[in-house]
Design a protein that fits this description.
Elements lengths: L2 E4 L7 E4 H4 L4 H7 L3 E2 L8 E3 L9 E3 L14 H19 L2 E4 L52 E3 L11 E4 L1 H9 L10 E3 L4 E4 H4 E3 L12 E10 L5 E4 L5 E4 L4 H8 L11 E10 L6 E5 L7 E4 L4
Parallel strand pairs: 6-8, 6-9, 11-12, 14-16
Antiparallel strand pairs: 1-2, 1-3, 4-5, 7-10, 9-10, 12-13, 12-15, 13-14, 15-16, 15-17
Helix pairs in contact: 3-4
Length: 306
Amino acid sequence: MLDAICIYDEASPETYTVFKFQKLNEADIEKYRQSLLCPACKQKAYFRKASKDGRAACFGSRYHHADCKEFKPSKAKAREELAAIEVNQQLVDSDALMIDFSRQPLSFQGRKPSIPPNDIDKKASVDPTPKRKQISADNDVLLSDTVEVGACVKADDLSEVPMSRVATQGLEKLLLSLLRGSELAKSDLWVYTDKKYRWRAKNLFVNFADAEPTENGAPRMYWGTLSHSDKKMHWLNPADCSDLGIPIEDYQEALLTNLNIQDRRDFEGAGIILFGKCFWNKDKTRKIIQLWSKDLSRLFIAKLED
């Protein structure tokens, strides 16, 4: 995409060429980049800066309508569509779905293992939420009185479900299917996050645009696309909203190694899904989504193809 519409000022939207946009000062780029739309189908768009190795700056979108003239099919889009078809079929054929957090993403095959989560320096994270009875992040135990009614229930009956009717899926295909509009986020299918607890899919999968702090920090599977990171790559900023951040400083080294990320540009426009909790910062001006137990197996990022 060579053009994008900026709706930062909704009363006076402005169309930028990529050449004009990249000439804005740094402050204006950071201010406007989360308010970009595709000029043809009006779906959320992103801006990627020029890279040090000569790749040009560009606009793009992971949400193009199929008939959008700006939509250019690629191998990545084909994978997303196949993932959406596969997940939609599982919704039809299965009585339940088990998330396999250990499943190796196809894009990671052949890489050296990243630093195990248990070896990451576990700094004391600041959690400004009231110190009420909360979910145990270390033991991943969901207490029945800390989760909204209907959101998650204890599932002692998993053994009663015929295993042939319990599908399994990894984070990569779940994310790609959501990006391509699968029915997963609207489904009533039971989804197991482990052998003990299950959720209705429509209560579990939450797009960043709809993320709200949950009672006592009850977790969800949050997903969407990334706009950019801060200069030190300590925070990730979703493109779907401007009042939310994802802290990654505590496991930054392992994450960057795992994803082979050298530059903050690599986060721009990437898809992301993570199991975590959402809460307000101290001043209640910004929402934070914190990765559950700082466990990288519960986070997946799909970088854009170059």
